Structure formats: C-alpha cells, structure tokens
Amino acid sequence: MGILLGLLLLGHLTVNTYGRPILEVPENITGPWKGDVTIPCTYGPLHGYTQVLVKWLVHRGSHPVTIFLRDSSGDHIQQAKYQGRLHVSHKVPGDVSLQLSTLEMDDRSHYTCEVTWQTPDGNQVVRDKITELRVQKLSVSKPTVTTGSGYGFMVPQGMRISLQCQARGSPPISYIWYKEQTNNQEPIKVGNLSTLLFKPALVADSGSYFCTAKGKVGSEQHSDIVKFVVKDSSKLFKTSTEAPTTMRYPLKATSTVKQPWDWTTDMDGYLRETKPGPEHVCEAPR
To answer: Which residue, 231, 266, 281, sits at the end of a domain?
Structure first.
C-alpha cells in the first residue's frame, strides 16, 4: 500500500513539473572583450500559457538591477549603459536570450533571466534563472584565407576577385597581406586590410600569398600559404570548328587551406569573426 501511494505521488509531481514552463539557462558563459556574446535563455512553449513579461537583471552589489523589460507595450532598456548594445530575442517563440555587443570588462557579473506567463486559469507563473557572464581578452586565432567567389584560387585573367583573411579573437584585429618572392627573398607587403582585391586579376598577380593577424592580446598569427593562379583567358578556349555559345572557366581550387574550424571550447559561438566590408578592402598593388 505504501509503495502504491509513493508511485501515485511521484506521478502527480511529474505531471506538475512537466505541465509548467521550464527555463533553460547555462550556469556560465564566456564572451570576448570588445566582442559580442549571447546569453541563452529559452523555454518550451506550452499550450494555454501566454508570455506576458520578460526581465533581464544584472547583479550589482547586494541587489539585482533591471536592465531590460518586455511587456505589452514593447521592449524597454532600463540602463543608459546598455543603450545601443543590448537586444533580446523575440522572433522564435520561447527564445528570450540576451545579446550584448562590444563587451567591456565591467560587464562581468551574474545575470538573471525572468519570465512571467499567464496560465490557462488566469493566474500568473514566474520563473527565473541566474547565469554568470565572464569576459576574457582573447588572443587572435590563426587566420584562414578564402576567395570572394566560387572559383577557388584559380581564376581567369580579367576577373574581379578578392582574397579574404579572417581571424577570431578580441577586436580590433589588424591584418597584413604578403606575397612570396623567388630566390629566397623576403616576402613583400601587398596590403594592410582584411581583404586583398584584384580588379581585374592579371597573370602577373599569380603567386603564393599569406596574411597575418594581430590583436591587442597575444602574438601575431600567420595563415597558411595559398597558391593563387590567374590563367590567360585566351588559353582557356579549346579549338573548335563551331563557335562556342558559352564560356566556361576552371572551377577547381588548388589550395589546401582548411575552411573555418569547428570550435569545441566553452566559448563556442561567442568568438567574434571579423567580416570584411567596404572599409576592410585594399587593392593589390600593380
């Protein structure tokens, strides 16, 4: 009889636990200094439960301070320190993760995610979870080199193409491009931005290139050397008695550079990747 009552009680507790929203928040998260971080906070939406309030609080001193509030009137950032650099997810139901940009060392603290729901019977249920945000100055990783097209590292002459150098770590990250020389001479510097642009690419641009990346923390990192080949367009056409209707160029890459790596540390997804834009493009010297 006692065993039967125990099983009934366990079943009752299981139903109650399963029937209420449960917040999923990691115990801690690490973000890069001067970079961006997302502090996950999610729950599985339940039928009949309506989200009515979302709060994010930061623990300063003895009392937590509300820094973000979402209610029926919209989103409200409560502290001037976070204006323009705080955002809370809203597109996916059940995802209220906190996104912070341009992390400073004093952003290190404990953060609370708090969600309020209206239940099917008209009452309200509140759940909260605390997580610790750690901010680290991260050294620059080994940069990778890619091209801005699907041609790989072998392209036809006359094509506009770029070599892109990408590294991860705490910004700002500075880049330098080098071209290898013959007869054991020192490589020459050909660019000082993340993207090296050829417009257009000439046969004389063929050669071996590599880039370096340097941040405020750690030593300078070097990429693998890539062999960049520009083919003479006139030699790409096969002799034929019929006029060709289309032009086809080789698409096979000759480089063995690895694609961006998979992160397996606890900083996965929070290391900032510098993406080249108009301000990060330099043209290869002629």
So the answer is: 231
